[in-house]
Amino acid sequence: DRPFVCFSWRYRDAFLTLSTDRLVVTGHKGWSSAFATHCSEKDKWYFEVEVLPCETQNLRFIGYSQESLPPLKAHWRVGWACRYQTYDVPIGGNLHSFALCGACNETPMLATGGLKRRLAGEASCRDLPLLKEGDIIGCFLTLHEPRWWLPDPRKDPKLHEFLQAGILCSPDAQPPCVVNEGAWIEFSVNGERLGRVFEGMIGNGVYHPAVSLYMGAKLRLNPGPNFSFPPPPSEGFQPCSEMRRPHIP
């Protein structure tokens, strides 16, 4: 695989299209997810994603002409996820993934555990930006040293087929969420930070930068170190370009 951080050829849905450098991903019709090649279980991390012009107009549906199709709208999710899901579902759909959800001309929302909700806290005190093409989404993650480790899935023969697909559990029997005390996530839009979210909900685990796309959405990953809106050095965030490869491939 590539020596640098990019979207993984393995940890992604087969319907997604990756650019040659594997930093740009284009969605198909239904929800599909792509995880980065590298990950971490502790420390402070940051990456950015650029919202590119969608390719909804290039989608084709058998039995429908372009003129007869109802209006289609691209949606995307950006955030952090453990490999406890199949890649044909969006991140934010279980307790081990956390996402900012967006679409053009809509305000951002949050998702985890299969539920979407509005941003609260600092962001509720001001008007949230309407998302658009060209926006830069910043993703912050703070994880503390784990005090509890999940069992090694390689010791369970029943999980072999999932491990072959790059998944660390049976998606129908995900491990428990043991909270990583003091962990938090934050998102920003074009450098405007939206406040800490998911505090008290983030479990111990190995987290990858991850995205999900729907109806031709298109995103560009920037793992660093050169960012459009870098965090202040005093905050101690590392670029995801410095992450390690997973111990369990």
Automatic annotation (TrEMBL):
Residues covered by the SPRY domain: 42-227
Coiled-coil features, chain-numbered ranges: none
Superkingdom of origin: Eukaryota
Subcellular location: Nucleus
Residues covered by region (Disordered): 230-249
Main location: nucleus
Signal peptide: none
Keywords: Nucleus
Matches recorded under InterPro entries: ASH2 (IPR037353), B30.2/SPRY_sf (IPR043136), ConA-like_dom_sf (IPR013320), SPRY_dom (IPR003877)
Family annotation (SUPFAM superfamilies): Concanavalin A-like lectins/glucanases (SSF49899)
Cellular-component GO terms for this entry: Set1C/COMPASS complex
Keyword set includes Repeat: no
GO MF annotation list: transcription cis-regulatory region binding
The UniProt record lists the keyword Nucleus: yes
Protein name according to UniProt: SPRY domain-containing protein
Organism: Toxoplasma gondii p89
